[in-house]
Amino acid sequence: MVKYRRMARRSKRPPLILTEEESTALGRIARSRSESLRRVQRARILLGYAGKKSFTEIATKEGVTRDSVYKWVDRALAIGPMAALNDKYHRPHEPTITPEAKAWVIALACTKPKEIGYAAELWTLSALAEHVRIMAPKDGHDCLSKAAKASIWRILNEQEIKPHKIQYYLERKDPEFQRKQEKVLIVYREVNMLNARKFDPFKEAGVVTISVDEKPGIQAVKAIAAELPLVPGKHQGVGRDYEYERMGTLSLLAGIDLHSGHIHARVEERHRSREFIGLLRDLDEYYPADCRIRIILDNHSSHISKETMAWLETRPCRFEYVHTPKHGSWLNIIETVFSKMARTFLRGIRVNDKPELKERILLGINEINQQPVVHTWRGFDLD
Predict the structure, then answer these.
(1) Going along 113-270, which residue ranges are E strands?
(2) 304: region left, alpha or beta (phi > 0 left; psi from -120 to 50 alpha)
(3) Cβ atoms of 134 and 144 closer than 8 Å
(4) Element (H, E) at 292
């Protein structure tokens, strides 16, 4: 009789009413692959109860006892569904790791392992924890003699230190970085003004602006096994064997007209001065003779070599260079075109040889030129 009454009381719990935000958050956690299993399971229990499923049905589906279902439902009804997902914080005893010991761990984490005799360049949490357990007692920090990896992680996390990760940055080595950047941005502002007013750059300014660069090392990759086609209900994507054969690389030399969006391109075996001069010849033949061609480009050796300069001297007042600063390739709009190519027709490309790769690249550029897009600089407020 007592057991029956207890079960009856359990069945009279009020419904769990979720807001739209809570329902969305619980659903995301219930489907997550990165959340802990406990939080995922609790989210599913609460969603099941809010969906008016029985305790037995929820327990069977989640593989837990009915008492576990009662526990998390009761907690959600008491403190809210999101708070109920977390374990209650408890500390069985006062912390034994002293502030001095924590400072010692932080200092150690800020030292590269190779500097103290290890082969590794960076710490892993496991390696750092093992070193701490060995060396801490010798340095007077006995409280760390049994420190687990989780304890080391908590110490580092308090100071937001992650010695196992690398954050890359780009050092500005060009002393004239600011001046060159401003010059490039002024050119972009002039181009934007002409494009906004829909004036012909040849007639209005007597100058056309081209963003130029190279994309070297485009791999000609050959599949050595037949690809499997998409099959509804069986193959959701193209099936491709893991093995392949490298047939060599090609270089793409390209420039985009910042007024019309037209792309000028050459695909070459290499990207030396003679190949770059070939691109300059293409531009020279394409635009009217009385128009000045302003080129935004970096300081690659082929752009400023003696061979290139000698050819430019044969075309006086025809070309104008605007150099981007060193380590400032992101200032060159052609990079966005290369990015688009990498995401579209170059993505996952397979060919039989380099001639086919060249043909496919030029075909992709021709497709872009059928519907050209004028790229506008939006990186800075040019005003």
Answers:
(1) 207-223, 244-257, 263-268
(2) alpha
(3) no
(4) strand 292-297
Which pLDDT score is estimated for 202?
Answer: 66
H-only helix segments in the chain: 2-11, 20-31, 37-50, 55-62, 66-79, 81-84, 99-109, 125-135, 149-158, 177-196, 201-204, 273-286, 301-304, 306-313, 334-343, 354-370
* pLDDT at position 213: 95
- Which regions of the chain are under pLDDT 70? 1-11, 89-95, 199, 201-205, 379-383
Cα separation, 269 vs 218, whole angstroms: 10
Q: Would you list the DSSP string of 296-329?
A: EE---HHHHSHHHHHHHHTSTTTEEEEEPPTT-G
Q: pLDDT for 307-333, tens place per residue?
A: 999 999 999 999 999 999 988 888 999
Identify whether the C-beta of residue 58 lies closer than 8 Å to the C-beta of residue 49: yes
End-to-end CA, the chain: 82
The whole-number pLDDT of residue 380 equals: 54
The two structure tokens encoding residue 378:
């939006």
Return the bridge partners of 213, or none: 254
Q: How far apart are CA 296 and CA 333, in angstroms?
A: 9
Residue-level pLDDT at 210: 96
Residue 257 and residue 195 in contact, taking contact as beta carbons nearer than 8 Å:
no
pLDDT for 204 equals: 67
Query: Which tokens is 42 given?
Result: 């609790």
